[in-house]
């Protein structure tokens, strides 16, 4: 039975980012790291079935892990994409109120814009409140009464991002094993014995980054059901009519109340020039139910036609869907990221509910995990217990 210092379960964007971060930090000795993944490739689930938006954190509750790590991670992801040649669209984001919204009662949408502006002010995110004429400068074909513009928002090729993080981790000596579902975890003599469908291994530290299945993996490690993930499907249609597909070139989101399950059906451009509409929010019973009872395209047209009157059902073609692992907070609304050190010795870190803005936050999450007390105590950084500065690390990579 082979032994490792760290076993990471899950090769999504977060698992790959954590593996890369641990592999390239300077410890007392190089860490032996293995990543176990159920699927054939990295990033097969939530990590690449999304909008690719690197969020600013403006939608998140002030002081939340989601907000802080999205801001940190997005900045790191943009710099990483530039260094590694990953496709990136610096589109900016518009959060808009339409004329229809005004006619139906402005107060709710105005309150939402005020909340977002207040979040931006507290987090020092650069935004502008823009009039209809100002919005037309940004998006000439957009019909909106007013909105917030966040200029420093980008869209990344999520698949290329995940694969680059995986390759970067492998260059630091990380071993990835695919088609290797974990079926049992047991504590044994200050370590964990991990049993998969193909092998058994021993690890001094365990990091659960299993995404949709993080609650199940945590239950294996803790021998109790501490966490619960609710799968929410988000569906996307592509705008394919040639004469209309370039009418909107930036991210355009609706203003929504804070308790909304998602960020709303929006115009979602990509670095390769495609334009998608979505995602919606559909509760599903299965974590693998991507296609049953597809939402008709008319729902998407109804949501966004107020911003683009020329939009019609015949302009849309079903594209794909993704499922995000939501956890509920104490108030019954969507909860924050859970990054919990559930055992200090041997280290066990459970990452649960890493939904949107998980892609944005991935590199920030990786640093957060590597800085946790249980990891630092177990593996000891060199240079008298201190890490190399991140600036030095980035120059070395």
Taking Cα atoms only, what radius of gyration do you get, to the nearest Å? Answer: 21 Å
What's the CATH architecture of the largest domain? 3-Layer(bba) Sandwich
How does the helix and strand content classify structurally?
Answer: alpha+beta
- Output the CATH class name of the largest domain: Alpha Beta
**How many extended strands?**
20
Largest sheet: 8 strands, mixed
Helix content: 25-40%
Give the termini separation.
32 Å
Enumerate how many helices there are, as a single number. Answer: 12
The best one-word shape is: elongated
Describe, in plain words, how this protein is organized in 3D.
The chain has 2 domains: 2-47 and 159-229 and 335-396, FAD/NAD(P)-binding domain (3-Layer(bba) Sandwich); 93-151 and 231-322, D-Amino Acid Oxidase, subunit A, domain 2 (D-Amino Acid Oxidase, Chain A, domain 2), CATH 3.30.9. The longest helix is centred in the first third of the chain and has 20 residues, at 65-84. The two termini are 32 Å apart. It has helices at 13-24, 65-84, 99-103, 107-123, 132-138, 158-171, 214-222, 297-304, 358-370, 373-379, 382-385, 390-396; strands at residues 2-9, 33-36, 53-54, 88-89, 93-97, 128-130, 146-150, 154-156, 175-177, 182-188, 191-196, 200-208, 230-239, 251-254, 266-269, 275-278, 282-283, 316-326, 338-344, 347-352. It has 12 helices and 20 strands. Residues 383-397 have low confidence and may be disordered. Helix 1 packs parallel to helix 9 (358-370). The strands form 4 sheets. Strands 1, 2, 9, 10, 11, 12, 19 and 20 form an 8-stranded mixed sheet that branches. Strands 13, 15, 16, 17 and 18 form a 5-stranded antiparallel sheet that branches. Strands 6-7-5-14 form a 4-stranded mixed sheet. The chain is an alpha+beta fold and 397 residues long. 31% of the residues lie in helices and 26% in strands.
């Amino acid at each position: 039975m082979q032994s490792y210092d760290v076993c990471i379960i899950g090769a999504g964007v977060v698992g790959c980012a954590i593996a890369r971060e641990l592999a390239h930090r300077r410890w007392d000795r190089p860490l032996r790291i293995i990543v176990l993944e159920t699927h054939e490739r990295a990033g097969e689930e939530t990590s690449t079935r999304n909008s690719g938006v690197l969020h600013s954190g403006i939608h998140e509750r002030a002081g939340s892990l989601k907000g802080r790590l999205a801001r940190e991670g997005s900045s790191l992801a943009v710099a990483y994409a530039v260094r590694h040649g990953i496709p990136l669209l610096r589109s900016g984001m518009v959060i808009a109120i339409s004329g229809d919204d005004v006619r139906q009662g402005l107060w709710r949408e105005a309150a939402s814009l005020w909340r977002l502006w207040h979040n931006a002010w507290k987090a020092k995110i650069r935004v502008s409140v823009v009039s209809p004429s100002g919005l037309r400068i940004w998006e000439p074909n957009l019909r909106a009464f007013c909105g917030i513009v966040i200029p420093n928002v980008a869209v990344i090729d999520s698949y290329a991002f995940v694969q680059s993080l995986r390759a970067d981790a492998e260059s630091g000596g990380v071993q990835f094993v695919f088609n290797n579902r974990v079926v049992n975890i047991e504590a044994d003599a200050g370590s964990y014995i991990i049993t998969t469908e193909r092998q058994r291994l021993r690890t001094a530290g365990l990091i659960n980054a299993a995404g949709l299945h993080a609650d199940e993996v945590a239950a294996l490690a803790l021998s109790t059901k501490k966490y619960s993930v609710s799968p929410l499907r988000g569906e996307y249609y592509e705008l394919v009519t040639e004469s209309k597909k370039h009418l909107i070139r930036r991210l355009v989101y609706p203003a929504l109340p804070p308790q909304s399950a998602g960020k709303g059906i929006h115009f979602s451009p990509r670095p390769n020039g495609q334009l998608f509409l979505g995602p919606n929010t559909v509760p599903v019973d299965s974590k693998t139910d991507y296609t049953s009872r597809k939402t008709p395209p008319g729902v998407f047209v109804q949501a966004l036609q107020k911003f683009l009157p020329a939009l019609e059902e015949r302009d849309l073609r079903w594209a794909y869907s993704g499922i995000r692992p939501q956890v509920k907070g104490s108030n019954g609304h969507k909860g924050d990221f859970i990054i919990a050190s559930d055992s200090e010795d041997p280290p066990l870190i459970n990452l649960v509910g890493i939904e949107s803005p998980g892609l944005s936050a991935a590199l920030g999450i990786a640093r957060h995990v590597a800085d946790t007390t249980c990891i630092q105590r177990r593996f000891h950084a060199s240079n008298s217990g201190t890490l190399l500065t991140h600036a030095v690390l980035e120059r070395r990579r």
